[in-house]
Amino acid sequence: MFESMTMNFLTQPKMVAAVDIFRALQSAATSLKNNLMIFAAVAAVASIVLGGTFFFFGRRGAENGKMHVGYVLMGVGVILAAASIIVSMFAMFGQTPQGL
């Protein structure tokens, strides 16, 4: 009896509680990436508007506004470059970035 149960266990396909941890991690990372990109876009627009309001406060405010908008545009460039670099790294090693 024990031998038949053991053979049955060893030869039958197994299902580990229907959980694929890597698929769950990938979907969580994709969801996080999508949410962070939306947040980054909203934050960039709000920061550019804030930089534009500095222009109402005289010459010193205009200088601060120019610097602020420049930093915001540099940050947007870093975010877009990071996404592009990740896709390029996947392609360099012969993989396809699924879900990116």
What would you note in describing this structure?
The chain contains three helices and no strands. It is elongated. It has helices at residues 2-11, 21-53, 58-92. It has a domain at 27-92. It is mainly alpha-helical and 100 residues long. Helix 2 runs antiparallel to helix 3 (58-92). Helices cover 78% and strands 0% of the residues. Keywords: Membrane, Transmembrane, Transmembrane helix.
Please sum up the structure shown:
With 100 residues, the chain is mostly helical. The protein has helices at 2-11, 21-53, 58-92.
Oligomer: single chain
Cα-atom radius of gyration: 25 Å
N-to-C SSE series? HHH
Strand-residue proportion? under 5%
What structural class do helix, strand and pairing data support?
mainly alpha
- Distance between the first and last residues' Cα: 51 Å
With helices defined by DSSP (H or I, 4 residues minimum), what is the helix count?
Answer: 3
Largest sheet, if any? Answer: none
Low-confidence stretches: none
Net shape: elongated
Average of pLDDT:
81
Q: What is the strand tally?
A: 0
Residues in helices, as a percent range: over 70%
Keywords: Membrane, Transmembrane, Transmembrane helix
